[in-house]
Write a structure and sequence with these properties.
The structure is a homodimer of 389-residue chains.
Chain A (H helix, E strand, L loop, with lengths): L2 E10 L15 E13 L2 E8 L8 H14 L15 H8 L10 H20 L4 H9 L8 E5 L10 H13 L5 E4 L5 H15 L5 E4 L6 H11 L6 E3 L7 H10 L4 E3 L6 H10 L8 E2 L8 H14 L14 H10 L4 E3 L20 E2 L13 H8 L5
Parallel strand pairs in A: 4-10, 5-6, 6-7, 7-8, 8-9
Antiparallel strand pairs in A: 1-2, 2-3, 4-11
Helix pairs in contact in A: 1-3, 2-3, 4-11, 5-6, 7-8, 9-10
Chain lengths: 389, 389
């Protein structure tokens, strides 16, 4: 058994939306196919992966560093002990060879796409849905039958007023979501408070609404928003400021009594450990959003879960950014807290299986081998192009 | 006045050397040319830049994100107030548009190469050596006539024994260097101690020797090396462990009484601020090695100097990694602590002007407009290829 080829390409997930920090009008991702020499049903087993949104495609790093290193490694050194499947940890070590420590950014995103494709192949070769393979290998066979999901939405776009925002949120509720999320920080505080109150008019309670500042605020603004939003007792107040400014988060947590959430722009286990050590977050209420498809993949995320528990936190406080099927598999198979979801944006890569509904704020895992990309028709059609030429 | 074109290419700086963490056998860098429409002596004014070693070329990020954003910005928005030169801060803002916060890695390296080329162009357009322009704009006209430099050497390579190591160090002393540096952590402690003692036999005192573990050690090993090396009173003990493990550094600083140095694998102002806040380093003896050609360029480094001083440190504690002419200009014009130098490796990009010697451990700044790439013949011949086709 061996990897015969690894292909990558850049896909557009352009969306005419803004958060408080960036426009997504030119957003791209990398898509990856890991092709094996194992043939099932007349076709080679192929693992597919892609990086999550927000940090752009990473074709340069994949083509120039990661893919050649994997393909130059003797194939048997990439197999597990029994030599009956690929070993994601050995493959991870092979593509990270001769990479210096620190500097966890675009490299972590490239690794996220490649590592996802590897795990999709591994689960397909094992003829198991990834979540079940994870449950059996790393979670004593336990798994969750349903996974908490919430739509990442409420973006700013030209001409969007309070009514459109309310319509959007009503739509999410109609689709079965309970907790919804909206952006803040792209307007003045007074206008954002009007937007929040408009959405509360739809969802009824702050316990069903999360807000996301996308790292925009300085300490004074973060505190001012916190004070103004305090009465709403929101589900969470996300990424108030620079994700690496741990001291700011510790100060905010001293003043804002309700849930904070951050981590989508931390890209390694070590960065998350720094947040736990220095960020003053509270294990009984705050949320950690590190996204495995941006931060060295599931392979690193398994180490993340270990470190989170070493620091006395429950893995239930982990709800990844990104709204992709990898996060859903992780949540179901490793019993973390849930996953973001993108029913409306970053298509066709946002969302889960076409034929599995969201009910009362939860969705269920799929039953096909791998991550489940074949259960998402438009996305799978795009991914398939990698292996059709 | 406008930028007419920005070109980039990948250059090999392959060296058959190892540190404790990686091999440099396939190391590459990005080289960049910023071409203006200003003609001097019959040729357009061109700024040249390159990223520092250790983190690979970043052509993907430059081609797909940074260069298009600069070229799509209305040219007058990239000029300074007087409209008589390019404005590096506005150009920096243009290429960092729609980039999320956090994740400072390869993106910072790409920015380092592009930003260096911009500053080279700015100094050439101002008809000043960059160090003098920096002194006048940002340092009240003060500058240093000589700059502390030390050779980054003492690498591991196959067949290199103690005699070759001693010969290498003797060579640096013959070239005029006083303080020399050698790698540790690529061998067992006992062997490394023999290597250190062999070099001390050449340089005479630990005050003339720095050692560099390149982030290899865990806490126990870092402490053990510190204890074993304590009697030597070394010039510094560099990058003992993961550069982002601030708590480890704080613990080590409690036990190791002499100078520590780190920062070459921190790539932003915020990461360095975290080191100052949480890393337990001591402003009277420790060294900060953030490399502007890896960490968003001189534009970010000016902010770094501000933050270092805001935290009560002297800018003299800043000695960048990288051994490139940008660091020499920064040290001379902004009166920081000095610069690494590569008389032997990473050619032709290691080293300063061909015709300016090192004397008693110091070198002098050049007197040609720009960063001084024209004063380094082999490097300039490679850079020139960017604009000759």
């Amino acid at each position: 058994m061996r990897i015969t080829e690894i292909r990558e390409n850049t896909a557009s997930i352009s969306s005419s939306i803004r958060n408080a920090y960036i426009s997504f009008s030119r957003m791209t991702i990398s898509v990856v196919a890991v092709i094996t020499d194992v043939v099932r049903g007349g076709r080679p087993v192929v693992g597919y992966g892609f990086c999550s949104n927000g940090r752009y495609a990473q074709g340069g790093i994949l083509r120039e560093r990661f893919i050649p290193r994997v393909l130059e490694t003797p194939p048997r050194d990439l197999l597990d002990e029994a030599h009956d499947n690929l070993d994601p940890f050995r493959i991870w070590d092979s593509f990270m060879a001769d990479e210096k420590p620190g500097g966890h950014g675009d490299r972590a995103v490239a690794a996220g796409a490649l590592d996802m494709a590897v795990w999709d192949a591994v689960a397909k070769l094992a003829e198991q849905p990834l979540w079940r393979l994870l449950a059996e290998r790393y979670n004593g066979g336990r798994h969750d039958e349903r996974v908490l999901v919430y739509p990442g939405g409420g973006y700013y776009y030209p001409g969007k007023g309070l009514e459109q925002l309310q319509d959007e949120m009503r739509g999410y509720r109609d689709q079965g979501y309970q907790v919804v999320k909206m952006k803040i920080g792209g307007a003045a505080l007074e206008e954002d408070l009007q937007r929040i109150e408009a959405v509360l008019g739809i969802v009824g309670s702050g316990r069903a609404l999360a807000v996301d500042a996308n790292g925009r605020f300085d300490l004074g603004t973060a505190l001012a928003y916190g004070e103004a939003m305090r009465e709403f007792e929101l589900f969470w107040y996300e990424e108030p400021a620079d994700p690496l400014d741990y001291l700011l988060h510790a100060t905010l947590a001293e003043h804002y009594p309700h849930s904070l959430a951050t981590g989508e722009n931390l890209f390694s286990r070590q960065d998350l450990v720094n947040l736990l050590r220095h960020g003053g977050l509270r294990p009984d209420r705050d949320w950690l959003q590190l996204d495995p498809a941006l931060s060295y993949g599931l392979t690193e995320y398994l180490r993340v879960i270990g470190s989170v528990e070493d620091h006395g936190w429950s893995r239930r406080r982990l709800i990844p950014h990104g709204g992709h099927q990898l996060a859903l598999n992780v949540a179901a198979g490793l019993q973390t807290g849930g996953s973001e979801s993108y029913p409306g944006v970053f298509q066709p890569y946002g969302g889960f299986a076409d034929d599995i509904a969201v009910e009362e704020g939860y969705t269920r895992p799929h039953d096909t081998p791998g991550i489940g990309v074949e259960r998402r028709a438009k996305m799978y059609a795009e991914l398939r192009r990698l292996t059709e030429t």
